[in-house]
Design goal:
2 copies of one chain form a homodimer.
Chain A: H1 3-7, E1 11-14, E2 17-22, H2 34-47, E3 53-61, E4 68-79, E5 83-92, E6 95-105, E7 115-116, H3 139-144, E8 146-149, E9 166-172, H4 180-186, E10 205-212, E11 221-226, E12 229-231, E13 234-242, E14 248-257
Antiparallel strand pairs in A: 1-2, 2-4, 3-6, 3-10, 4-5, 5-6, 8-9, 9-11, 10-14, 11-13, 12-13, 13-14
Protein name (chains A, B): Thioesterase family protein
Pfam families (chains A, B): 4HBT_3, 4HBT_3C
Domain Acyl-CoA thioesterase-like N-terminal HotDog (chains A, B): 29-104
Chain lengths: 264, 264
Amino acid sequence: MSRFGDATAVERVADGRYKVELDQTFGFAEALNGGYLMAVLARAAVDASPHEHPVSTAANFLRVAKAGPAEVLVESRKTGRTAAMSRVTLVQGGEPVVDALITTGTLESDLEPHWTGEAPPAMPSPEECSTFASGKDDRGFADNVEMLFDPASMGWLDGRPSGRLEARAWLRVPDYENDGYALALAVDALPPVVLNVGAKGWAPTVELTWHMRAVPRPGRLAVHGGGRLVAGGWFDEEVEVWDSAGRLVAQSRQLARVGRGLPG
Amino acid sequence: MSRFGDATAVERVADGRYKVELDQTFGFAEALNGGYLMAVLARAAVDASPHEHPVSTAANFLRVAKAGPAEVLVESRKTGRTAAMSRVTLVQGGEPVVDALITTGTLESDLEPHWTGEAPPAMPSPEECSTFASGKDDRGFADNVEMLFDPASMGWLDGRPSGRLEARAWLRVPDYENDGYALALAVDALPPVVLNVGAKGWAPTVELTWHMRAVPRPGRLAVHGGGRLVAGGWFDEEVEVWDSAGRLVAQSRQLARVGRGLPG
């Protein structure tokens, strides 16, 4: 099993109760990655459901999760032929850390879209992209999640933000076959899009909803981040994930708080 | 008070427990409107919170809500200076009908955006739009929520769908001042965008997340609906709501099931 597979494993200890061990290398200095936590929650929800895929996940990030032991509670709310719905909570130190609503369903693996809107804007090939490996703080995450960033969206690193809410990268989870859990990771793996309009530092996610739209094919995932509005210290970030066959496989929006550097 | 104000009133009967009377005229033949139900949930969440506005709402629609008495349960999960988070459930006949995660916060009423992406595509003036009043089935809703539809997005009514996932209208709640609850209604008031690619009939919402981005000014709201993908019987619908001052005041995405008329 890969590092990601191990780090997101859930052990069923009772009906709707799972033991997990949160892996420090899926975090940064400030906190464990939200996409990683959602992958853990989705594994528990799917285990407790008759369906195969985490079709819809909405998560409220209440507190900072720490590396080490934690529990996932899954409460089934409705089980249907097409979809099953549950309330899922990550608990640590006796407190809820992430609350989620997860709907599971079963997507056909050879599903062809009936209708798709425009493709996302073009992105440079992986060879033209860069790892932009930064300091040792996030070395663990960079080892676990191979990301190649579009240089046009990384000017903020050198004090030249693009002036648009954007971030783009190719993403691959080493030694791991693309699936819904890798998509959970992908929708929250980019640097905050607000860095490109002058904000600095960590931008804590308050709420993130993502939908799995198809079973991803093998290969690198194209991850496109954008946003619409920064106001009053809040911003939205939208992410679309496209697979190697050019199919839209996941879409997300999060509402987050702006870090330092901007008014409000 | 207006019909909408009366129909969304919540009566606190205990800590985190509210009595409501769901109003049949906010429904269609199939079900009560989801935006109406979210407005009811948001009122209870704000009542139980120190903050003024329903900044983020994610809802799972489990069962069809019926007109008549119901209860709203609000469970506080974290109360902070900037935001308070809760789990909120609409209960009817002893069963959960809608599960929601609601984050409340307080938005300044004179908030100016620090950064906004492109404005939405132009829409014809209200005078160039039409009510397209249909049969008596939805007369109640049409009386409660004044909507003027962009004719270019209503071709499906005459068997000429535009071929794009789209729906657009001006919206006004009669005798009611625009606020966060009116926005909850606005993000789920359009005809399903999937009607414009050939689907027919009701398209039940599975999950809807919406964010309140600013306190709306008085006047008609411009409601723009789009979408990205129809596949395997699922589609997404995105709505942006702009106020009379040209500010983005709400944004939503829902995942829903396609009605009749399309494969999958």
